[in-house]
């Protein structure tokens, strides 16, 4: 009976071989998983270059003499370079912002009379070319010519009175030297001479003022340019333009501007202000001729924004304008990345 119990406790050799085979299978599976995990860890290494040598043992490129020469020399060595993110390069002629604005004259000059008067003659029409100092309007100067004639006669009379006072003073001074006349009489004669001289100077000043008004009756163009608008006709009464007020009827004669001095006025949204700076190069294309491009530069940035519209006014100077650019028409402006 004891032998039967011992026989039941004895391990069958075939069962032992089967358990050992299962253990070997588990160990092999763990080894395979470990190798795969190590390979994946090396493959996703975040930085540096990986060099696989011989049996595949990874080493950092910083610890090896890898490079073009090392890649060419030695067999069984593969060099894998790290991939760097591509950096975007912006061309200097690429636009960073495209907006629309209106072509304007940099300076629009309205010629206004300096005093109330009547237009006697106007020698230009809308669109005419004018030159600097060219006479464009004549005001009626009959009143001032009459004043000038009157004042010229008064001047002659004042000069005669001065000469008479000087003669009287000379005689009285001789008599006073001989004790024939009193010193008081001599002083009165001397003061009469000074009064006559003052009268001469006063009339001379009035004549100069009248001549100034006569000169103001001749209206001249202050610049070389084009007549943008003709606002009066002959025999029309005109008055000076009020300072700080809007132009009313008959307060200006004509308006002129230089067609070779043009700008583009833009109301720039506040979200785009950071993309624009003084001196920035631009490309201008009129909406009427989009196939034509003109060089421009940011010439003016307003010091104050419009709170109601949320915009900032920008002015772009057109460097070489021609006849295709018409003021008050719209134009497309491309602000370039090249800077000034």
What does this structure look like?
With 340 residues, this protein is an alpha+beta fold. It folds into four domains: 2-80, no CATH class; 95-106 and 258-336, Efflux pump adaptor protein, beta barrel domain (Elongation Factor Tu (Ef-tu), domain 3, Beta Barrel), CATH 2.40.30; 108-139 and 217-257, RNA polymerase II/Efflux pump adaptor protein, barrel-sandwich hybrid domain (OB fold (Dihydrolipoamide Acetyltransferase, E2P), Beta Barrel); 141-213, Helix Hairpins (Orthogonal Bundle), CATH 1.10.287. Helix content is 34%, strand content 27%. The protein contains five helices and 17 strands. A six-stranded antiparallel beta barrel has the order 4-13-16-15-14-17. A hairpin with a 3-residue loop joins strand 1 and strand 2. The chain is elongated and about 165 Å long. The chain starts with a helix and ends with a strand. Mean pLDDT is 81; it is low at 43-88.
Number of strands: 17
The CATH topology annotation of the largest domain reads as Elongation Factor Tu (Ef-tu), domain 3
Give the ordered list of helices and strands. HHEEHEEEEEEHHEEEEEEEEE
Q: Tell me, what's the shape?
A: elongated
CATH class of the largest domain: Mainly Beta
Task: Offer a concise description of the structure.
By secondary structure, this protein is α+β, with helices and mostly antiparallel strands.
């Amino acid at each position: 009976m004891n032998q039967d119990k011992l026989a039941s406790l004895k391990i069958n050799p075939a069962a032992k071989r089967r358990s050992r085979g299962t253990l070997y299978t588990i160990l092999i599976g763990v080894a395979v998983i470990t190798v795969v995990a190590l390979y994946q860890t090396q493959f996703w290494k975040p930085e540096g270059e990986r060099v696989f040598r011989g049996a595949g043992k990874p080493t950092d490129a910083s610890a090896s003499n890898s490079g073009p020469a090392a890649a060419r020399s030695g067999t069984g060595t593969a060099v894998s370079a790290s991939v760097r993110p591509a950096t975007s390069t912006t061309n200097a002629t690429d636009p960073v912002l495209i907006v629309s604005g209106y072509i304007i004259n940099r300076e629009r000059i309205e010629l206004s009379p300096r005093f109330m008067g009547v237009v006697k003659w106007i020698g230009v029409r809308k669109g005419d070319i004018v030159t600097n100092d060219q006479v464009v309007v004549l005001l009626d100067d009959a009143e001032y010519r009459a004043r000038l004639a009157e004042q010229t006669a008064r001047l002659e009379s004042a000069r005669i009175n001065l000469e008479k006072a000087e003669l009287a003073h000379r005689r009285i001074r001789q008599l006073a030297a001989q004790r024939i006349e009193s010193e008081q009489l001599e002083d009165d004669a001397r003061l009469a001479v000074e009064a006559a001289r003052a009268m001469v100077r006063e009339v001379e000043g009035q004549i100069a003022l009248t001549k100034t008004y006569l000169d103001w009756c001749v209206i001249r163009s202050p610049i070389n340019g084009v007549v943008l608008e003709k606002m009066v006709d002959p025999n029309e009464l005109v008055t000076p333009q009020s300072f700080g007020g809007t132009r009313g009827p008959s307060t200006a004669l004509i308006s002129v501007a230089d067609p070779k001095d043009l700008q583009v006025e833009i109301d720039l949204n506040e979200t785009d202000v950071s993309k624009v700076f003084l001196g920035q190069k631009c490309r201008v294309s009129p909406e009427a001729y989009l196939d034509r491009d003109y060089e421009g530069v940011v010439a003016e940035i307003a010091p104050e924004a419009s709170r109601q519209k949320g915009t900032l006014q920008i002015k772009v100077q057109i460097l070489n304008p021609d006849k295709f650019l018409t003021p008050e028409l719209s134009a497309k402006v491309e602000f370039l990345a090249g800077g000034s």
